[in-house]
Amino acid sequence: MIKGIYETHLNVTDLTRSHHFYENILGLSHAYGQPERGNSFYWIGGERHAMLGLWEKEPAQVQRQHFAFHVSLEDMEHAVDYLENKGITTRNFQDDDIGELYVFGWMPAVSVYFTDPDGHSLEFIAVLPDEAKPELGLVPWSEWERLHGRGSL
């Protein structure tokens, strides 16, 4: 019955600042907003596919949350450069500063993490075309590629 998640909402402390981040920096398409009610909505993956709602609240009402944006594997190859060229600090799942992204063997998928202006944990994630290998746990992406007979990134 359930086909996916259609929308998610975040509380933010400054709607204008968050609007700039999600529309101008991340490139989401603005769908609708009611500034008088302190909200703004953005299409994810194209119009009517999925939606992110932002609600301006007092700082005490803003609790750090997490969600991931699905990206193509091709886009993931450039995701770190894309984000860092926009002034966004990135990190891998381990936050270990090895300069490499990790693959979650159980999925398998590769991801990069960053935060929005309110400290919400955001992620770009790309599912890999390979068979899952949960026994590998977390694997540096370059190692995963070598294990699958592909060249380095």
Would you give an account of this structure?
This protein is α+β, with helices and mostly antiparallel strands. The chain is built from four helices and nine strands.
Derived structural class: alpha+beta
The major beta sheet can be summarized as:
5 strands, mixed
From the spread of the alpha carbons, the general shape counts as elongated
Instruction: Assign the CATH class of the largest domain.
Output: Alpha Beta
Q: Count the domains.
A: 2
Q: What does the average pLDDT come to?
A: 93
Low-confidence stretches: none
Classify the beta-strand content into a percent band.
Answer: 25-35%
Summarize the structure.
By secondary structure, the protein is of the alpha+beta class. It contains 4 helices and 9 strands. A hairpin with a 5-residue loop joins strand 7 and strand 8.
